[in-house]
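Hello, quick one for you while I still have it in my head. My current little project is about how a certain protein chain folds up. You're getting the sequence in one-letter code plus the fold written as tokens. Would you mind checking whether the tokens look sensible for this chain? Here's the protein in full, and shout if anything looks odd to you:
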Amino acid sequence: MRYRRWSGALALLAVGSLAWSEGQAALDEALGALQARYDATRTLKAAFRQTLESPTLAGALEARGTVVFEKPNRMRWDYTGPDVQTIVGDGETLWIYQPDLKQVIKTPLRAAFQSSTPVTFLAGLGNVRRDFEPSLVTEDAQRWVIRLVPRQSDAGIGTLLLDIRKHDASVAEARITDAAGTVTTIRFEAEERNAAVPAGTFRFTPPPGVDVVTPPSS
């Protein structure tokens, strides 16, 4: 009886170790493919659809538009609806233009997006293994889903859930959860890599008659 108990326990341990090894191998494969893709990506253009859900909101907020990234730290988000706004990171400054409020928010880019902030990985500012604690959520024949938790402790920084297509390691969906429980889901479509980006894409000049607001430095 004791032998059977021990042999059963050893079998369970062996199965558990095998499952862990397979899970680790899948995670390593996903991280390697993802990092290799973004290491080889200079520019990225895509259409996006965004959903924001918050405990303080009665329902989800929907938005859509286009996004352009250029390494190492330039980005442009043009929201076409329902609320029109433009977000531009020119390498040094982050500009958030809200036409309906006749307002531009201006802040240092690094203050707004530290290297360990989840969304900065998409902009080429981060390194997935260095900046995040990764784990594999699920895997099937077509996709990996991985969770990235910033290694740097900061109450204002959330987690990033990436849905990655296996055939080319592109990100189909990014889901960012902040410390307050707000979930922002961004779905990417019609992606173009390493295409030429027009001059001036990442330059922003506040339009006449708008207020330029600079948040206080911490």
Remarks:
- Confidence is low (pLDDT under 50) at residues 1-20.
- The chain has one domain: 2-213.
